[in-house]
Amino acid sequence: MKLVSVLSLAAAAAQAKVSVEVHRALETKGLSDVTVLFHSINLDALPRSTTDRRTQVFEALSERSTVALAETASILDSSDCQNFWIAPVAVCNGLTSAQIELLSKLPGVKSIHGPIEISLTQPLEKEAAPKVGLPPNAPPQWGVETIGAPSIWKYFKGKGVVIGSIDTGAEYRHESIKHNWRSYKGWFNPYNGTAIELPIDSQTHGTHTIGTMVGSHGIGVAPDAQWIACLGLYGASGTSAALLSCAQFMLCPSRLDGTRPECKLGADVINNSWGSTGAYNPWYEDVVAAWRAAGITPVFANGNAGPKCASTGTPGAYNRVISVGAIGSPTDDPNQLAVFSSKGPANIRDANNNTVTIIKPDVAAPGFFTLSSNALNLTDYSFKAGTSMAAPHVAGVVALLRSAQPDLTYDEIYAYITKTTDRDVLKPEPELWYFANGTVRAPGSPNCGNVSDASWPNNRYGYGRINVGTILRDGKLNDTPTKKPTTVAPTTAAPTTITPTTAAPTTVTPTTLAPTGTTPCPTNITPKPTTAVTPTTTKATPTPTTTKPSVCDKPVDGVDYYGNDIKSTQRSNSDDCCDDCAKTPGCVVYVWTPWNDGTCFLKWKAGKSAPYWGAKAAKVTKSVGSCQAAQANVDYYGNDIARISADKDDCCALCLTADNCKGYSHYQGHCYLKGELGYASAKAGVTSGVRNV
User: Fold this and answer.
1) What pTM value is reported for the model?
2) What are the residue numbers of the active site?
3) Catalytic positions (predicted)?
4) Which of 183, 319, 507, 544 is the most exposed place for a label (fewest CB within 10 A)?
5) What is the DSSP letter of 473?
6) Are the CB atoms for 646 and 588 separated by under 8 Å?
7) Domains and CATH numbers, the chain
8) Sign (positive/negative) of CA torsion 164, 169, 175, 179?
9) How far apart are CA 351 and CA 484, in angstroms?
10) How far is Cα of residue 376 from the mean position of the Cα atoms in its chain?
């Protein structure tokens, strides 16, 4: 009996390593793509190298990777997985239940998750902004001026420092950044390999952030620093495998095919203007630990899900990265937190897997309409807004500090930038946030996490607004602020006017199927949605159905329904939202906004209404009916037509919105709508129901 108990505990421990998402994929498809996390090594315990710390870290990580490969060799074929040395991670495709079970029992395996995909939404841009050109001797942009960079350029401008960019790529021919791209092992493309030999920008985001870090023409913080880039996000999305490949390249740049890495060529600071809007995810923790151990400073955007509290995304939420909130306003106020800037606190897990609450962001920097390099024209510049634009300002500051003292450690850099911030000039959280036309956008969120906004650090500005002019005010490193913080006159800023219709509505995404947020977040990490396939054991033949015409109410102007999004579609005409909602299982209301040339936000219920300039909202009447009494601990296998994050009591109503829905199963906070009812099986924690015909 004792032996049976021990075996049961071991099996339970192995099962606990596997995420719910993976279990569900196995149940519905029989296979699952997974991200396998192995136990990491303590890089801080490595003896300090007096010659080449980067190579020392690389060799230790490579040895750990070899151990992980050997441990899984009997379970995985080499073609199943892509293994990485930067972190003990394997990204695997199409694993069976048996393979995953065997992996979970390995002592070296820490956890098994679903695949991670990053979705990039457009940052806030000026609507119909004219083409902007700049002369080579243009005055510094307002953000560069605000953080005090020009005042210390007579001492340091970033010479000798390499800045890394993991983003959408780079238009290396742009006039503002072509002079300081390091062409030798300065570009990596994990999507196309050797097919594209020179840097490209698959969107425009990457070129813009690089310009803020190192650009000429008055746009860059450290214009004499060199830059290298990796294509982590291809167009609108990126994979975990690509971002891990980029992480390796930044530590030890290689040829385009990944061979012959040279760690001595690695970046000194890496800008990451991407991150999730969901719960804490540890998948990149070992990456940033490796960077720090090798002497690289990781900088991350804090997220654009403000003004609500506890909205910091990961990896920005990690404890030992510099996460950056955004400063700025429609009137170019350098002393106000941007409305979209995510706030703390952040809940993370420590080495013992305990939940720990920490303050985020770490610092704030200019991030409202920032003028920088435009990848669409080699001599033009464009305005973008987001914490994606704030983070490069801080990465540029780190480059200036490393130029002043090349051997600075992460901890030393962190101390310099957090002890010298501007604070007294920063404005408190308003009671209400307004659009430029005077309508209410959202309520203020003061004192997040019960941390007073009057204390430092806090969950709005972190330690305050970064100021490199204070740190290097006399050409030497200073870790104390000046007696009086420098207030930057907003008149130095390039004129900007925000058009409120360019912002996304204030919505909270309850599901991983489509990223939405208060202000479009340039980067969201979302698990890849699982599309269920009808199992071969199901004998039922689907009955063809025709979607009945749905009736949309007359749209109401200027109204947004908060939250409950299923997905979004890009539509220039608001009338098209009605059809989109009708064809989407679970959709009963839509909100159209002019954001991103027109977007329909499809929702499973109408939440709290709020004014939103330019929006159009309408409810959609669909089929009516009822469901049989819910069945506890019963699951209908497969045949999913939709997965919606909702309470179990809402599943019947969601099923009734889709003509081809025959029933539902609710599990772990999601309603799985069924196109057919497969065989019923007993499963703890599942609640199912059948639609009355």
Assistant:
1) 0.70
2) 167, 205, 388
3) 167, 205, 388
4) 544
5) T
6) no
7) 14-115 (3.30.70), 140-422+431-475 (3.40.50.200), 556-619 (3.50.4.10), 626-692 (3.50.4.10)
8) positive
9) 40
10) 24
